[in-house]
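Q: Hi! First time asking for a complex rather than a single chain. Here are the components, and I think there are two in total. Is that enough to go on?
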Amino acid sequence: MFDSLQTLLAQWMPNEVAVVLVILVQAMMVIVPLLLTVAYLTYAERKVIGYMQVRLGPNRVGYAGLLQPIADALKLIMKEIIIPSQSNVYLFLIAPVLAIAPAIAVWAVVPFDNGMVIGDINAGLLYVLAVSSIGVYGVVIAGWASNSKYALLGALRSSAQKVSYEIAMGFALVTVIMTAGSMNLTDIVMGQQGGILAWYWIPLLPMFVVYFISGVAETNRAPFDVAEGESEIVAGFHVDYSGMTFAVFFLAEYAMMILISFLTAIMFMGGWLSPFEGIPGLEALFSFVPGLFWLAFKVFFLLFVFLWFRATFPRYRYDQIMRLGWKVLIPLTILWVFVVGAMAYFKVAPWFVHGGVA
Amino acid sequence: MGIEKLLFYVFAATAVLASLGVIGSRNPVRAALFLVLAFVATAGIWLLLQAEFLGIVLILVYVGAVMVLFLFVIMMLDINLTPLREGFTRYLPLGAVVAVVVLAEMSLVLNPQFFGLEHFPSPVALAAGDSNTKMLGQLLFTEYLYAFELAAVLLLLAIVAAIVLTLRRRKQGEVLYQDIGAQVRVQAADRLTMVKMPAVVAVKEDNKKESDDE
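A: Yes, that's all I need. Here is the structure of the assembled complex.
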């Protein structure tokens, strides 16, 4: 589809310009739905937590409060951006950009269906890990440039947390790469063909859990949201940000949440593959459902789990977070690298029969 | 001009300007951030050279981890900027000598006669299904296995040494640590003792107290 668009455009303009235009169109096709999902994820969050706490949640703006995210966005856009007089203005303003840019750039390699991906690169998983690790700069610089004790302490906390959990996350990804024998996200999904039992969540069950927990910690979500422990350091690293600059941090956090859900669905839950694959009656019955729908279904389930966590667990103390990351999750992931190596060597069916490292 | 060429010039110019920024900026935090930018631009050039694995790992390791720690340290220091510049003119001759020596060495090794497009054929496009990462891995784990393992051991040694040098053992009881395993294992009987106290005794005690007060 995009190739024909490119050839069509190339008749009117130089080929390079057509290529850039097509890439821009593809990027917009990912970014616009992403931002809409972020907007309605905030609505879903307030509604879900509301019902879990036996109250209604937002219900004033529009039918059942459906226009609430739009009203919130308008409010944030209209608000004044306050720049603290003692801050480092240049870095203060560049920090939100550094937070949101990686959160959006990562989506370049995320496949939504077989072949529905902007950049189908070989080192896809590595790219995801590398680009999302840049996001920590937004936090560090925001905290430092604000020139405020609370912001600096919040930035130190949340960046130390992000860097720590990135290690467990990276090792969990190593096991996925070993199982699939590829770092390409499309190949990883295609390696899981054969129904719900062939997905990687069974041989990598501890890694599935570790990855999702690290994802929650990485996005600074409850129960790991000590960066914004209201009673101790107010809002954490973005305490001095107002209006749209604050909203950009917020967008980045939610975009990362959606990304973690996507990656978990792709790596451990068969991506866009139907769960009924290989079951005689059901496979034919559900064969009309597009792969994008299955992926979205899994992603929304995982996002619901994010919200569920927030409504259920009390906040961890900081030393407990660090203990969980360094003393529980990282040793477990290292152990599982060996287990996966053994499974790959003995070609445990059905996951390690084709592909794999061996 | 192809897009690749354009991208190369953009990345190269960014890398050079950012490197100048590293040594030129007054604020150490800004210098560190320029270094990050230089890394990212270099990674872009490596990607253009089809060294995708190296380019991405450069970002992952140096930008994502090492420079974050650098920034941490710089941010925590309370640097007074004026004394930093005090010895500038005094050390300028020495610095100039070092710069000239380094430049001379580099021009001897990286002689201009080694440069030029005719000396470096553009990288051959890989066959479909051949991945750069896989080839690198095969080389690392076969031909260069010893060097690879030695580097790994060296790094491990450095980690252990760093921990040993900075570890501060404190006396028993000086700090309280949380033993989560013990907390989970605890039973009600460990914390609570049920004491049977006959009601009559309590009344007697009260009476005695009252008589004491009088």
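A: Chain B touches chain A through 26 residues (CB under 8 Å). Let me know if you'd like any chain examined more closely.
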